[in-house]
Amino acid sequence: MDNSKASKKTIIDRIWDFFASIKLAAVIFSLIALSSIIGTIIEQGGEAEKNLQVLTKLFGASLAPSIYRISESLGFMDMYHSWWFMFFLVMFTANLVICSIERLPNRLKAVRQPLKPLPLEKFGSYAIKNEIRIKTEPSGLKDSLRNAIKQIGFNAREVSENGTTQFYSQKGAFGRLGVYATHLSIILILLGAVIGVFFGFNGFLNLPEGYTSEVAYSRKGGTAHPLGFSIKCIDFDVEYYKDKDMPKDYKSWLEVIKDGRIVKKQMIEVNSPLRYGGYTFYQSSYGMMPNPQGVFILKAISKSGKEKIVNTGLNGTFTIPGTKIKGEITDFSPALAFRKDGSTFTYNQMMTNPAIKISFTNSGKKLYSGWLLKRYPQTWDLPEGNRVEFIDYWGAQYTGLQVRKDPGVWLVYLGCLIMSAGLYSAFFVSHKKIWVALLPDGKKGSKILIAATVNKNRLSFERNIDKLTSILTKQA
Amino acid sequence: MGSSEFYGIATLGYITAMIVYITYLVVKIEGIGKFATSITVLSFVSQTIAFMLRWVEAVQAGSRSLWRPPISDLYESIIFFVWCLILGYLIIEFKYKNRSLGAFVTPIAGLALAFIEMSGMSKSIEPLVPALQSNWLLAHVTMSFVAYSTFALSFATGLMYLIVNTGKKTEPAYIFWTVTLSILVVLLVAMGIDFLSFRVMASSQQEFIKSYLLKASFANPSTGIAVLSWVIAIGFTLIVWNYGYALKKILLSFNLTPGILDEITYKAIAIGFPVFTLGGLIFGAIWADQAWGVYWSWDPKETWTLITWFCYAFYLHARFMRGWRGNKVAIAAVLGFVAVIFTYLGVNLLLSGLHSYGEM
Ligand code: HEM
User: Fold this and answer.
1) Interchain CB distance below 8 Å, A419 and B282
2) Distance from the CA of A399 to the CA of which of A97, A346, A446, B107 falls in 20 to 30 A?
3) Number of domains chain B is built from
4) Spatial strand order in the sheet of A164-171
5) CATH topology for the A114-171+432-473 domain
6) For residue B258, how far is its CA from the centre of ligand 1 (angstroms)?
7) Domains in chain A: boundaries
8) How far is the CA of B320 from the centre of ligand 1 (A)?
């Protein structure tokens, strides 16, 4: 370092140098990592009681309250929104940007620079080199040499001068830019995240079957947020693993209505949301209405195959088509279970095992009564060969939707894509350069000089060069 | 035979291999080394068969779809980690024609397997709740564990680098590796004693942590035994510290130069880091976005994943810093894997215990 130069630096230069240092990056990495560790011990945005309890477990009852007070005043209870964490992120970004700007121009120049032929005397000074002598004149070797170079994957340029021919080529120079793509992608992701925080919406909507809503409710405070269109829940259904109460899948059939017209219809399930007008509706939960006034949807099928769909409520009646057999729904249980003695009870208030009890009469004469379970089709067959299918109890459940609007998410995804490409080229693309000179050797022979460099994965490149050598010696 | 029998064979095989590799390191008889490799290869084959069988069994039981390989719950993911680790190790052994690494890598596999056996985690094939039936999640978990296994390798070679590259007992790097190695060995032994004295097994992880983990030694209800355990552990560490240079001589006699070890460490991380970024962070975020509508929510697991990522980004950048090559970089690689372990187990076991919420 030249001291006289350093002292002449302006303050701006100093600030620039400070931010251009990779040491600063290491410090910021550590700061973010260390403070994040604290953020995982203290539950973020959690109840004060709970965090006090955590601190008591760690530091004992006497110290906990004061540690709590100090942490709270420093913003550790909601640290990812605290001024100092934001400050770390800003420093991080500035460091990343300036560090990259500082180095990018040189790197770009190096990558763009076309490869030049190598003076003959320099061939020996390369780390990867070889010399082959063959008893054929150079003119007879040129074509096979060109081919051999092609075979190991290089599209070589060619110059001839004073009887010497030189082939030279490079590959993967762009890989040297991968690091910068990676850094750029981090900035994009941070930018996308900031846009999401400032212009996004995070809310929920519990929509009963058959209902329509024009608003969603904010997670912060539960205020209504107009969507600019309406969303309707046509139907909701849960599918269970066989003989278990563990849901296998749950789905909602939704409709988007704008200006009185249906503009979109889609079934959503966990992991496959509906997107419309910048909003995304995720299937996140479900539940039972407090006093359900739903409709039982049944399908009555006679022995001879006549079918009828029945929509009715509790105490409603229907007949099996083509017969005088009449059914009346006398009872409903959202989750029916049988005791050992055969009596029944409801084991929870969610619709885990919905069942209806039906009493059948024939021309006013009492026949029998029994439970039909939606999840167990074997309960649908009646003694005479008729059948009543329990299709749905509609209007009793609501679907729990997570509603999000995030105008920054595409930047985040773009960043992710660029980061993947950047890391791939930074770590897996090696920059290879190769020079091959063909010159006369004695009266009727040739000498081939090979020089090459590579910035990573040297072994596999050396194997390539060996292959080139063996192709040439075999052909000669 | 079903998948569990083959897993059993593999587990036993890896533990045996660990003992044989360590013996080989000490006595340096070529035949013993070959024996260790053979056991490892056979166990690996057995584990591969077990993996296939479990897949078939899950589909037959109707609990999983055909496209869902068994890498879904804690048990399956740790098993998969061991599989990747051993595969990575065998590739290195073959490429560098050096078996001494086995003595450092197989104990990591041994610790993971011992943990499974003792913690009583459920090995049965459970159906998946809807949020877990996602291809993003599958890619996320699979790639995370591929990355973790490369990080485990870099941990082993990073430690070995420190062993061969330090000499003075007062050198911080020397103290660092002797202490780290001692902790590793002491933990392995302490868990072995737990296993022998309780033949446990807990029915849940919380219970395991509370009632069994290290209860036979450090956390023994009898103060005498607890104190004795600490004395032995500290004594052991002091012995390792005092005679650690012997290990350096052994490793050097296997032609392990700092150069080779640094190269393997870097290569393992250079493969692991992009895979971890894509699978661990990006796919994880996409999955969360698809399933919950938030790609990032700073929950402890996500945050620790980010911390781990920073550790390895730190490692990569440290190699560019003047004066940072060598011991300091190797220490960063070792600490990176400590962060990995914490991300995976610490968050589930310790933090969730602290907050008393969540299950495994
Ligand atoms: C404060 C922010 C950061 C700064 C100032 C910074 C700066 C740098 C610099 C100067 C290089 C060396 C480039 C070269 O000349 O080859 C580099 C390399 C690299 N950076 Fe960063 N970086 C930052 C953050 C990150 C982060 C968060 C990542 C995470 C993905 C990252 C990934 C990389 C990678 C993968 C390399 C290449 C390392 C290698 O080839 O071994 N950087 N960074």
Assistant:
1) yes
2) A346
3) 1
4) A128-134, A445-454, A432-441, A164-171, A157-161
5) TATA-Binding Protein (3.30.310)
6) 24
7) 2-110, 114-171+432-473, 187-291+398-419, 295-394
8) 9
Q: Chain B contacts of A45, Cβ < 8 Å?
A: none
Of A50, A271, A413, the CB nearest to B133: A271
pTM of the model: 0.84
- Up-side HSE of residue A167: CA atoms within 13 Å toward CB? 19
Range of the domain at B52: 3-358
d(CA A464, CA A468): 6
List the structure tokens of A373: 């379970």
Q: How confident is the model at residue A240 (pLDDT cuts 50, 70, 90)?
A: confident
Pocket of ligand 1 (CB under 6 A): A 22, 25, 28, 92, 95-96, 99, 103, 179, 182-183, 186, 426; B 313, 316-317, 319-320
**ipTM, two decimals:** 0.86
Q: What is the whole-number distance in angstroms between the Cα of residue A177 and the centre of ligand 1?
A: 11
Helices first, then strands: H and E counts in chain A: 10, 22
Residues of B in contact with A54 (CB under 8 A): 354-355
Give B150-180 pLDDT, tens digit per residue.
999 999 999 999 999 998 888 899 999 999 9
The 8 Å CB, 24+ separation contacts for A158-164 are A159/A117, A163/A138, A163/A439, A163/A440, A164/A120, A164/A437, A164/A438, A164/A439
Q: For ligand 1, atom 15, which residue shows the shortest CA distance? A: A103
Which residues of A are less than 8 Å from B277 in CB distance?
Answer: 419-420, 423
